[in-house]
Amino acid sequence: MSDGRKRSRRFHGAYREAVAALSTFRGELEAECACSDTFGGYAQSWLDYLAKMGEIRYSTLRRYRNAVRALDFEFKDVRLSDMTPERCRVGIAAIKSGNNFSHRELSGAYMAKLYSVLHAILKMAVEDERINRDPLANSTAPKVDTREKDALSPAQLAALVGNLEALPMDGKVMCYLLMAYLGLRRGETCALLVDDIDFDRSIVHVRHGIEEQDFTVAETKTHAGVRDLPAPPQLLVDVRRWLDARSSMGWSACPTLACNARGTLLRPSDLEKWWNGHRAELGAEGMTMHQIRHSNLSMMARHLNVFDLQRWAGWASIEPARVYVHADAESLANGCADAFRHHFGTI
After folding, report:
1. Is the CATH code 3.30.70.120 the one for domain 154-331?
2. Mind giving me the DSSP string for 156-199?
3. What's the confidence (pLDDT) of residue 219?
4. 3.40.50, 1.10.3290, 3.30.1330, 1.10.150: which CATH number matches 37-127?
5. Sites in the chain below the pLDDT cut of 50
């Protein structure tokens, strides 16, 4: 990813001073070249290129930067020409087993993300003719060792909803009700517009997220995030109650459904602070904010097939559904019984 620019420098002075300055300049160029020939130097130029193109969201670019920092533990000073298939395998194994920030063994899921970033960098290096072939072209990505997420039972989730609805209605409570009822991400709840609530059809249109760089409403991270979700009647009652409260406080002009105490956009970070201060009284001591979404998805997985669950959650693939959909003999039997009853009139 060389920028192709010629380097030059003007100098005014005596001959001996000019010779010394030339030597220094050559040393700087050699150091620059050596840096760009290493994985760490090239990876940084790859990140700079992505930032300048502006085609990915700030949150994604931040994750890429964190991944490069993790990869640097093993590959930073390795020359690109030395990134052989064997060196990549050895390095990935070393990062996983402890050569990382935590000095502990990393999960397969996290290593799969690092692997995808490493692969993207090396593919670009091939396109830039910095290396002749992609050393990961014939390799296998680390296995995603997903495990069942800790989640509230449906009864516990219903109790949490009841505790939320007992609180004075405000923008934060509204966001948590949206998470509990619909399994929305926190950014989706903050970015939901008043116009996204279709009371006539009992539909919530999910169309936006929060751009973390400047905290503005933006498009969803992926096209899969755009979805129409059936809204339960009680959620619509809660929304109307919140809209009435907003109106009485003079916040009707705020386009987003949730808003802060100034009647402006509510930031996702404010939601987390609120949750940490209120979860004990809500009967959710020790539970993270994101586990509300997991609890909803776990509940819905009992009733939806894997493809419907994918649409409900707004995932780009069905892979995340493996966390929630399990081999369940009782679920299979109940589903078959419903099908037989519907089509054959018998179990």
Report:
1. no
2. HHHHHHHHHHTSPP-HHHHHHHHHHHH---HHHHHH-BGGGEET
3. 82
4. 1.10.150
5. 1-5, 31-35
